[in-house]
Design brief:
550 residues, mainly alpha, Rossmann fold, Arc Repressor Mutant, subunit A, 3-stranded antiparallel β-sheet
């Protein structure tokens, strides 16, 4: 009867599970190689939680000479968004994830989009029906709601199982009559589980976990013949020869179902590694990072801010393994690829997602870039987000590289940049076409309306300016200028007898800095003056006078 039922339900399915086993053989990889996947649904953008998962999966595969593949799980087509698949692929590409197999790359274990694998799923369902492990269920939504109400009244577990599985034991004639009547149906698993028994499994991250066996007759195929997530993932992970399923810990509770599916299908289950969720502080409480509530959950946020994908990956690495940050700080000559991640060092509980920490990591990343590389990234960013500024730095390429290189190739480089968007904020005042076109109050807003500056100091400095001076010669000129105007040549000299001086040489430097940068703090003043030159300094003195006069 079971064979006859299987043919009745799936007359067009000609292949057998053995055909697919032969079509998708074991991978020829070295021992210990991890085969894993990123398997998103095309129902929205790739958010930071998904990126974190993809990052870990990619790293674990790469460092073991394994395979990292992309699989699109589009069985829930009602929720699919327009260009969802393209968006996922582009998001991964923007973060330079190397995908070995996928919808674009292809591969011998494809197709890599689930909606293109329906015949495979139906083949295995047909086989389960033949073996008496699956059956058609004709229950309506109304009947299922009534069942739920009954279970609530009886104070028993809610679900479709055991004595509550109303269509589990229909006869062949009863099924055929319903089919002849054109009644819609789903295919359910005839679960062999016993809820009163326990299953034990080892999670690569969380350790040993125990659950009651699954006894629910879960849906395998929906009314349209498309599989549910649970069933499709079991078949795909087996046929694609996945060794490790790396996913969010919201799926931990599904492990009993998944292990049971592997068992009834006759598959060896993969290892599971459930990643702790990214969390945020909200007042005194902690909650999961939300793609609906948190702008920084979207990876688009980081593109728009100009935080490089490499810096984001470094930040994710600090979340993934607690020992990464110390290793990275001690190995400045190495890259992310040189670090070996370990499941047992990944957090079990929630992982605090701190933007301040990300900015700190990003500052370190920027401080280690060569000025030429920083310029290239800056230009690319502003060509997309601020074309006017992009034209200015492109026209002033050598000047821009020189500015970006100030205090860069030193033992302790500056860490004033956390993103490409910071470049304009930090350096725009060094371009005459921007600074001199601002009204004086705006140009010198960084002085916080402080107008207690002696502009004559800057005018005198202009007269003694020499662009060939070394830094030591430049400082001597400033000390002489300070002395000529009643300021101490040395800070120490001033502190010993403050009543004898107007101030010290540092105050003279501050006045010059205020004039040329519009700020109270800046990178190395000597380098700035050398890059700007005498002509620009003269124009800025006039601008400074207008500010002080207003």
């Amino acid at each position: 009867m079971q064979k006859e039922l299987a043919e009745l339900l799936f007359p067009n399915i000609m292949k057998t599970p053995e055909d697919y086993e032969a079509m998708y053989p074991e991978r020829n990889l070295e021992k210990g190689a991890i085969v894993t996947r990123f398997a998103p649904s095309p129902t929205g953008f790739v958010h930071m939680g998904s990126l974190y998962q993809a990052f870990i999966a990619s790293k674990m595969a790469r460092q073991t000479n394994g395979v990292f593949y992309l699989r699109i799980e589009d069985t829930d087509q009602k929720r699919e968004v327009e260009n969802g698949i393209t968006g996922i692929i582009n998001d991964l590409k923007s973060f330079d994830f190397k995908i070995d197999e996928g919808p674009l790359q292809g591969g011998v274990y494809g197709p890599y989009i689930q909606s293109e694998r329906v015949e495979i799923y139906q083949t295995y369902v047909k086989d389960l029906i033949k073996r008496g492990l699956a059956y058609p269920c004709f229950c309506t939504e109304k009947e299922l709601a009534e069942l739920r109400n009954r279970q609530e009244r009886e104070k028993v577990r809610i679900g479709y199982y055991g004595m509550y599985a109303m269509n589990r034991n229909l006869t062949f004639d009863e099924i055929k009559a319903k089919l002849d009547a054109g009644l819609p149906y789903v295919i359910r698993l005839k679960s062999p589980g016993d809820f009163h028994k326990t299953i034990n499994f080892h999670d690569c991250i969380k350790g040993n976990i125990s659950f009651p066996e699954n006894d629910m007759d879960i849906i395998l195929l929906k009314q349209d013949g498309v599989p549910t997530y649970h069933f499709a993932h079991a078949i795909d992970d087996h046929l694609m020869r996945t060794t490790h399923v790396i996913r969010g810990d919201e799926w931990v509770s599904s492990v009993p179902v998944h292990l049971q599916l592997f068992e009834v299908l006759g598959f060896t289950p993969p290892k599971y590694a459930h990643i702790a969720p990214l969390t945020k502080r909200e007042g005194t409480s902690v909650r999961k990072l939300s793609k609906r509530k948190d702008p920084d959950a979207s990876i688009r946020f980081y593109h728009e801010k100009g935080i490089p994908h490499d810096a984001v990956k470094l930040f994710l690495a600090t979340l993934a393994n607690a020992n990464f940050e110390m290793w990275y700080n001690q190995n400045k000559d190495k890259t992310l690829d040189d670090f070996a991640f370990q499941f047992q060092k990944m957090p079990v509980g929630g992982t605090y997602f701190d933007l301040e920490k990300l900015n700190s990591v990003s500052r370190i990343y920027f401080s280690m870039l060569k000025a030429n590389n920083l310029y290239d990234g800056t230009l690319t960013y502003y060509q997309e987000y601020d074309q006017d500024f992009a034209q200015i730095i492109e026209k002033n390429k050598e000047k821009t590289i020189a500015l970006l290189n100030i205090e860069r190739e030193v033992k302790r480089p500056r860490k004033d940049l956390a993103s490409y968007s910071d470049v304009k904020h930090e350096f725009e005042n060094f371009y005459d076409e921007i600074f001199l076109n601002k009204d004086p109050e705006s140009a010198y807003s960084g002085l916080e309306n402080d107008k207690n500056y002696d502009v004559s100091l800057v005018e005198q400095y202009l007269n003694i300016y020499q662009d060939t001076d070394s830094k030591e010669e430049w400082m001597e000129r400033l000390k002489g200028l300070a002395q000529d105007n009643g300021y101490a040549r040395e800070v120490k000299q001033y502190k010993e007898n403050p009543e004898e001086y107007k101030g010290h040489v540092g105050d003279v430097c501050e006045t010059i800095r205020a004039c040329v940068t519009g700020k109270k703090m800046s990178p190395d003043l000597y380098e700035i003056l050398k890059i700007l030159g005498k002509e620009s300094l003269a124009k800025r003195i006039d601008h400074f006078k207008k500010y002080l006069e207003d």
